[in-house]
Amino acid sequence: MKKRQRLKWIFTTGLMVFLLSGPVWAQGEEHIDTGATAWMLTSTALVLLMVPGLAMFYGGLVRTKNVLGTMMHSFAAMGVMSVLWVLVGYSMSFGSNVLGGWFGWNWDYVLLKGIDTTIMEDGVPEYVFSMFQGKFAIITPALIAGAFAERVKFKGYIMFIAIWGVLVYNPLCHWVWAEDGFLFNLGASGAIDFAGGTVVHISAGISGLVAALYLGARRGYPKAEMSPNNLVMTMVGGGLLWVGWFGFNAGSSLTSGLSTAQALTATQVAAAAGALAWMVIEGLHQGKATALGFVSGILAGLVAVTPAAGVVQPGGAMVLGVLAAAICYYFIILKDKLGYDDSLDAFGVHGIGGIVGALLLTFFIRKSWMDEAAALAENGWGVWQQLGVQVAAVLIAIVYAGLLTYIILMVVNKTVGLRASERSEMAGLDSSYHGERGYGMLNPN
Hints:
Strand order of the largest sheet: 1-2
Order of helices and strands: HHHEEHHHHHHHHHHHH
CATH superfamily: Ammonium transporter AmtB like domains
Distance between the termini: 98 Å
Number of strands: 2
Number of domains: 1
Low-confidence stretches: 15-29
């Protein structure tokens, strides 16, 4: 009897050891963090949502005859940039340095053929990371389109964003976000760009300004009436951008933890502060608080906090939102005085807002983050040293994006053409390039 009980005990113990050893063996394998992966999947979808949100935001601001053509600029980027990202974009952005670090390259990243089963150190499949980053590559050239809305050939635009994505966006992304990028490693802590203030907004804003100046103003600007066709759509688009921005910023933590919560909170606070500040400034300056002003303030706050979301506390995010609203408001007024036609204020909001955030975040960095940076530096590290790094990164982005954009514009203009003909522009982009009308049989003017 005792022998039977002993055998039963040995069998039970052995079975328990066998069952419990399964997880132990699994620890040696690549482990997927399902929580982080779920959040990154959600963030990827949220960032993609921003593209139709941008299409609605821009589409409502142009004249009726250009609403579809303007929205197509955003939607076309979803197709063009997605294909290019899979072909070469991910490799150029996150591969190892080539040509002195101008961009990266990794043959395994071409067509994503080498990451089919790869799990990253954070426990997220590399497919998810690559698709998340690919959404940034989509929305950046789409932002540029706001600067030259209502006057560009569709085929010229397609060629422009394709070349721009390869020669401007991918190298900038590599410099700032790849582990061997020179801006990533500049100074003790690298240039801070948590979610794309430099890579996305400054590059898009400066490129938009160069394009607006190169193409010239819309025919009739500024004397002709060029009122928005649908501010309701613009407000809905602005709301979708705000929602999508949580994926844009909080998703850039690449985790689902404390840093995610910090970035999400900073995003909400900056957007709200920017909207309220713009409303107050506009009320004092013009006597009325407009719907367009409110959503413009939302965007200014969101843009400014984008590079800072992971390193500033809510108070700092609030200040950045207020400052961005005030400075962007001033630059939009200055645009009218200078007379250049940045149709939908791509430079005034994204370029200026990105510069404000990238530079001024330095004065609101968490003490713990700055202490960590100081510990890495041989001779100490402080606010002014980090400000120098931020200034260098901003200037490099401005010069590089501006110069390459000008060259690309010339190439496109000399080949397929860029500026719409007078007849096409007066008829409207919708009928000229798409054979459609956004509002049925309504008067296209």
